């Protein structure tokens, strides 16, 4: 159960980081006064933190869980 808890803690920390960084950086972009294309480009870059947080779960589970790793290798 300790391995599962560690995996879940890491996933939760990464998810939380992505979801906290994104709105925080949106506020920075708004404070900088970006408009038009600059605003659009900055928004697209900022959203990557959420996308990375969602996509990295596989790698976290694969590296921390032998059960997950063996199940994936059998697939």
Automatic annotation (TrEMBL):
The keyword Transmembrane applies. Keywords: Membrane, Transmembrane, Transmembrane helix. InterPro entries: 7TM_GPCR_Srsx, 7TM_GPCR_Srsx_nematod. The chain crosses the membrane at residues 7-34, 46-64. Pfam families: 7TM_GPCR_Srsx. Signal peptide: none annotated. Coiled coil: none annotated. This is G protein-coupled receptor. The lineage of its organism: Eukaryota, Metazoa, Ecdysozoa, Nematoda, Chromadorea. It comes from Pristionchus fissidentatus. It comes from the Eukaryota.
């Amino acid at each position: 159960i300790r391995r599962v808890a560690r995996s879940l803690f890491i996933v939760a920390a990464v998810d939380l980081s992505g979801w906290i960084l994104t709105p925080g950086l949106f506020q920075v972009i708004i404070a900088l006064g970006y408009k038009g294309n600059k605003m659009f480009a900055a928004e697209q870059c900022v959203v990557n933190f959420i996308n990375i947080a969602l996509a990295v779960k596989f790698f976290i589970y694969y590296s921390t869980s032998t059960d997950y790793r063996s199940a994936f290798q059998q697939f």
